[in-house]
Amino acid sequence: MLAVTAALVAFLASAASAAVPNWQQCGGMTWKGDTVCGSGAGCVKIKYVFPTHYSQCQPGAAPQDPTPVPEPEPPAATTVPGTPATTGTPAGVGPGRDLQTGYYWIRAVAAPNFHKYMQSKPLYGTGVAVLGDYTTAGQFQIVDGQLVQLVSGAAVKPEKLLYGVVSETRYINDLCLTVTWSETKNTYGTFKWNGDGLTWTVAGVKRPNEAAWYVCAGQQMYINLGNYLYGTPSGCADQTIHYYNDKRANN
């Protein structure tokens, strides 16, 4: 009897300490399951559903303070190295406010850019990748490792696309790669979904967190080659960004 009891206690202790897998739920106002993430991951508060919240284990994320962080005013726009000259002319008229079949919204889900949406600047034009308001959110898909943005109207066939192009030159802290929009395909690295997270990889570069991004001056987006939530450059914020497929973008 004692042996059976001891075995049961050991089993329950093991089950209680099971680590939550990456990208799985680890918290929430009504969450009753495990809250401890695996090695190298942190339980990040996401706030998917108001007024409750949803926390998720994210690789490379340090445990976060449950106290909400007020969203600061966005920094003033500046021109940073790696910003290409823009044409000033939109590449398309845009697909409209309704999500088109086969495409996704892409948005940040944590402060200070909670529910800011990926788009191009100028809107629907060749230029930098930024996080902006939901009313001007872009629509995206990954096709053969290319991150594509739909910039033509819903009735236009064939569809007109812009491609997310990654710079091979490093900027700011030598760990930032610019992402811009071009009418020609990207030749450096591969985009893909990891769960609902947007990741980028390239041969010869080992990233601690393949889903790590920086959002810096002017809301410009960079791929972060370094550690998530560590060594963040002044004026930048760490972000992971995720797809969202509701009919309309919202804040």
Q: What is the string of helix and strand elements?
A: HEEEEEEEEEEEEEEEE
How would you sum up the major sheet? Answer: 9 strands, antiparallel
Helix content: under 10%
Structural class: mainly beta
Strand content: 25-35%
**Structurally, how many domains make up the residues?**
2
**Count of DSSP H/I helices:** 1
Mean pLDDT: 83
What is the CA–CA distance across the termini? Answer: 58 Å
The Cα radius of gyration reads 20 Å
Q: Which regions have little confidence, pLDDT < 50, spanning 5+ residues?
A: 8-16, 64-86
How would you sum up the global shape?
A: globular
Query: What's the total number of strands?
Result: 16
GO cellular component, one term: extracellular region
Pfam families: CBM_1 (PF00734)
Signal peptide: 1-18
Domain CBM1: 18-58
